[in-house]
Amino acid sequence: MGWLIVLFDLPTDTKEERREAARFRHALLDSGFLMLQYSVYAKNAISTEKKDSAIHNLKIISPTTGNIQCFFITDAQWKASITISAAETKKRRQINKDDNLGEQLQFW
Questions:
Q1: H helix intervals, 1-100
Q2: Of 26, 31, 83, 89, which has fewest CB within 10 angstroms of its CB?
Q3: pTM of the model
């Protein structure tokens, strides 16, 4: 059991290329992929057959331009992943700003 990670870099210079990129993203979602980032999607694959089937489907729905890479990671590797979000960082900064309260109290 594991996860199929799909990363892609598609050209978006022309209106047609933007339409193709949007169509591909929608097709990924319709195929059961989760959007992790704008160009990074993941899908649970409970067997190698499911993984192979998903890759076969990706070949069918892929645009004719750009690059698409696929990685397969185990469920244990997925669970060990670490997410660092801007919201968490901002929250930590806010806490650190208020942290100088102790210094002010020591002054008095």
A1: 15-30, 48-61, 75-79, 86-98
A2: 83
A3: 0.76
Residue 98 placed within a domain = no
Classify residue 25 by burial, with Cβ atoms within 10 Å: 0-12, 13-18, 19+. middle
pLDDT tens-digit readout, 54-95: 999 999 999 999 999 999 999 999 999 988 887 766 665 555
89 located within any domain:
no
Q: What's 33's DSSP letter?
A: P
What is the DSSP pairing of strand 34-37 with strand 40-45? antiparallel
Which residues span the domain enclosing 22?
Answer: 2-82
